[in-house]
């Protein structure tokens, strides 16, 4: 128990050892260290060498390890040995199997919904045609002749079906933007309504027309026209429920990223929680700056370094008069922690100075490279058309002159994992092709952009999980909070209802603005 307490006290900054021998102390430390090395998460300063396969690497691992180490790394770091880089735990196996089951379920649900909608749509468009053709096929000789009005109804049915077909294609047959966890309630209700409506028409048609073999063909065609008219009204209802209802803003949502606290505000209408989550994610990819976990490692390493503090070793036992020295060292550690804000201030100031210095070098290097491009263009105009360079070759020619300055700046600002050499060359050739300035070329690298600006394989957020206490199919309400989780961070969404605004009118009499200027007789003019 004494050895265990000594081992745990290493992370709090102070350790008091008993009067055991060094050999017994070493054996006790090894005995309590071995179970801790099995699980790196139980140590606050563990070095993890296992990388999840779904997470992209963040540039140079060696540089990150050096940044995350402090002066006391050898004493406060738990080394993990005997761990394979491709090892996997039972939790990982369970998570992978759950992901596979969820993906299979989503695929089945998606294709099942598309199949049901396609079959129902085909039934809707074939039903009016079947109503008109079945009497001609079954009892053609007994039908009354179709007059001019009846023939005009054929044209009406044809054009109405064409309009319905175009409207249905524009409203329902769209490329899906996302897979939602639950069905869209209004869409499902519309499908059920259409099915019941068509079924009731078929039931009436079978009882009153097919069984009795009605000979009034004009009445049968008019019955088919009424069906098409009703389908058009249902289509209008679908436009109101699916498109127009959500246009009027009713709620304001605040979206906060859990890692760095970046937030945005959006206005939403009457939507369900799952559809509101889709709107939030669509705006996240274009409004939020790209998530950069490398910016968080510096603050974490700094906090861990200040928590380490100083360590006190009482190797001579409790009988020795070393309490005064121990108290002095404890007081020194407390003063060191009190001055941590000064260290943070100077560290941030030094970082800003290095960023400004390397930014200035980068701007100068890019301007010189673009000046060289203009010189090359002037020389190329004097050559034959077959000897002129294309923008790709020109970009490759001037890229080495700015590569070192750009690489140092990206490393200093921890953006190197988002910009490969191929992407930089493509952007440079694009700027050369469109005759853009050096400032336009540097805009992508000097200011972090939204997630959509970078390649898809550089994204850290591709699959999301919606966490909500309310049912995801229920509508938005005031005070609802739901969370969108991905692999490395989460988005916390807080819903507030837009308050009711009472606007009154106050009438101002135009005569109230008039005034009279009275001059005294003795006033000099």
Automatic annotation (TrEMBL):
Membrane-spanning parts: 111-133, 153-172, 184-204, 224-244
Record's subcellular location: Cell membrane
Superkingdom field: Eukaryota
Major location (coarse): membrane
Biased composition range(s): Polar residues: 74-86
Compositionally biased region (Basic residues): 19-35
Record's compositionally biased regions (Basic and acidic residues): 36-45
Region of interest (Disordered), residue spans: 1-86
GO cellular component: plasma membrane
Keywords tagged on the record: Cell membrane, Membrane, Transmembrane, Transmembrane helix
Keyword Membrane found: yes
Topology with respect to the bilayer: Multi-pass membrane protein
Protein family: Belongs to the Vang family.
PANTHER family membership: VANG-LIKE PROTEIN
Protein name: VANG1 protein
Species assigned in the record: Himantopus himantopus (Black-winged stilt)
Origin organism lineage: Eukaryota, Metazoa, Chordata, Craniata, Vertebrata
